[in-house]
Amino acid sequence: MQESTSPKPERWRLGVVSYLNSRPLIAGLDRDETLELTFAVPSRLPDMLDDGTVDVALVPIVDLLRPGRDWQIVSDACIGCDGETLTVRVFSRTAPESIRTLHVDGDSHTSVVLATIIWKELYGVEINVVPYSGTPTDDCEAVLLIGDKVVTNRLLDFEIETDLGSAWKTLTSLPFVFAVWAAPRRIDTAEIAERLSAARDAGVKTASLIAADFGPGLGFPVALATRYLTSRLKFTLGQRQREGMKLFLELAERHGMVAEGQELVFS
What we know:
Elements: E1 12-17, E2 35-40, H1 45-50, E3 56-60, E4 71-81, E5 88-92, E6 101-104, H2 110-121, E7 128-131, E8 142-146, H3 149-152, E9 160-163, H4 164-172, E10 176-184, H5 190-205, H6 207-214, H7 222-232, E11 233-236, H8 239-254
């Protein structure tokens, strides 16, 4: 329970992931004059929430447990999967179990931790994680990419693809949650939580239209965008999703990738 809360802002400022996967979560919100939407890559949004640039942000779940952050999860809307994601993938020139060094996309936080856990738990390999420069070199054996660039800038000379959503499902039989809406615990989020859930409901119902409207502009063929938004991604934070989040964060703590003793807080 929150010890104290601040009044809700007169104009909510929302930090939104700048990929196609966030569009069903904000259906109609861009036309709401009481809201201000700012788009950024996932790794940038936690800092925007920290420095007060936004009031609520769609943040990678691993960032919920960073030291010094007193955040709450807002609404039951999320970006997740229950198997294949299409847009969180490791591209490699060698079999997954043979990978030793993984070049990682700087736009991601959660996916880097997820890849490290999967390689340790599923393949028995402790991979060395290094930043990806954006151009694969001859000695680059594997690259983790997330978001729209997986479709628009595929690494065609990397013959093997490992979808992290599929690998997580193989490892745990659970769904995976990549991002949730979060806000500082001091803020009263009851109203905005209802609006975010309602926007998600509207977005899920019209996901095919959203795919046709926004997919081509982001480099997606309409058919692929439709499949992505209607059958690959999951947007509701249900009980099984919570179980998946809990297990992921337990494994991240076990492997020293998040602070010990942290707990998720739901508004």
